[in-house]
Structure formats: structure tokens, C-alpha cells
Amino acid sequence: MRADLGFLGVGTDVERVYRALLRVGRALPGELAEQCGYQEEQARSVCRRLVELELANSQGDGVLTPLSPARAVEGLVATAVTRLELSLQSEVHTSGIVDALIAERRAPSPGGQPGAGRSVHLAGMAAVRAAIDELTFFTRDESLTTNPTGVLSQESISHARPIDERVLRRGVRMRTVVGHAAREDPPTMAYLRELAGKGAWIRIAHDPIERLIICDRAAALTPLDPVHTAKGAILTHEPGLVAALVSLFERMWTGAEPLPMVEGEDAGGAAGPVNELERKVLHSLCTADKDEVGAREVGIALRTYRKHVAALMRRLDASNRFQAALLAREKGWI
Q: Which of 176, 194, 241, 246 sits in a 20 to 30 Å window from 210, CA-based?
């Protein structure tokens, strides 16, 4: 039995044309129509889908060339994984399962006290990290964080990377201020630039800063003891206290400077009006005729891509995407 690409979401017609293209190396849609026994218009439609799925490239003269099977399948797998992840996330939020489980944890035990109020004391790093995991799971719009020491251990980076990537994939706007010691620590700087390249905004403070984590301006986490952070933290949802902590973060952000650029490299989000991810999104507005194509060009999920496009259009005060691309060019953003 010959394996097919159906399990990766590729239709029979598209796979048939892709296989034909692999055999010949390059061809016009009309030539592929003849080989596959299709009407030319049908072949053109299939070829457009072939390009959309990134199984082939279309040259300026209309000639199609196939992507290598390994690269093509890798892209299909990545798209399928993203689609599955978004579907599962949507189902989780629709089902309310997390809220139900949290309610179990906060429910009063037999003969015990009621669950936590709007401010909770968390003892130990294990409890703090569990709270961070929970907060970031629900974050949808904005993440504000600081790191006063500036230096991240390999353990901290390993723990933070999947959380940060999960947040950024959802299109959450992430802003982080780190202590000035980060400049002298290559592993920390490498990770900060990695985050910036994925869309985070990073600044380095000259003056001492406080440790904060704020999610969607609705919940905030601060250490019980700023000197000995391993003791635990306070998690608060009190609107007045959260608003005060947001104001504190904004003052620290304003007083910090952008992430230094490496020679020959864009610091991605560290300086200028747009970061590297946003610049890629703006470029895609000039080249992609569909959101699905643009998302694949940028390498992010479709929903995340659309959130970035909407945010950029608001910043540019553009009424449509074509105008947004023009305004971005006029401003020198792309």
C-alpha cells in the first residue's frame, strides 16, 4: 500500500499534482493538467492550493517548482500540530475544565476554611511556579514581567522557555524589564534576543527594579521577600493593587533602555516602532493574498497572525490591510 498525505490534510487532487511535479521538477499548471488528466482551470485551482500548502513555489512566469518532500512534510506536520493545539485550547476554554478544577482546589475541605480570597500567599518556589503556569495559561492580551537580577540560570531559562513560547504563540504582547547585569551574561542575552526575535519587547534597566509578574492587568505576582524570593510570593487580583503595580511597571519600563543590538542583526522588538515579528507580519501584508498564506510565511498560528495584523492596523490607523502596508512603508517600518 502506498502512503498518502491525507492524514496531514492534503486532498487527493493536490497530492496527485504534487507527485507529478516531483517527477518533472518544474512545470506550468497547463502542463500538469495534461499529465494528471484535469481541465486547465481545475489544475490552476489545485496548483494555487499546492502553493498555499507550501508544497510548491510559484515563479514569476507561473512555473511551479516543488519543495523537497522532507521540507514539505515538515511544514504540513507543523501546520497540523498548530491546528490541533488551537483546537484543543479552544475546547479547553469552552469546556471550562480548568475553572472546574481550580474550584475543586479552592473549595472548603470538610471542617476546614473557605478557599483563597483575592490575595493569596504562596509558600516556596514550587507553589510560585505552579501559579505562574496557571496565570500564563489564562493570559490572552498582555504579559508584564521584570527580573531585577538580570541574570538567568540555565534552569530558569529551561523552565521559562516553554511558558514564554506558549504565551507569544497566542499573540500576547510581552514586555520584560531586566536588571543591567544581563549585559554581562552571554546566555541571558542570547535568550533575551531569542524572545525578542519571537515578538517579545525587552528593555534593560540602569537603576534597581522590583520583581513583578502582571497578567492582563488583572492579576499580579510579587515576592514575599524581595531579597529571598525562594520564600514565596503574593498573588493578588485586587484591582486597586494590580493597577498600582502596573503603574510601577510602566515607570520601570520608561526608565529602561532597549535591548542592545548585535552588529549586523536586528534586535527584534528591542528598538524602533516594531519588533522583528511585527516587521515580518507587515512584509506579509505586501506579499500574501490570504491570512493563511501570511501566517505560514511568518511561521505563526493563523489566530496569532490575525491578532498581530489587527493590532498593527490600529497603531497605523489604517482602514484596510493594503493601507497598513503603505503606511508602514512611509514610516520606514518595512
A: 194
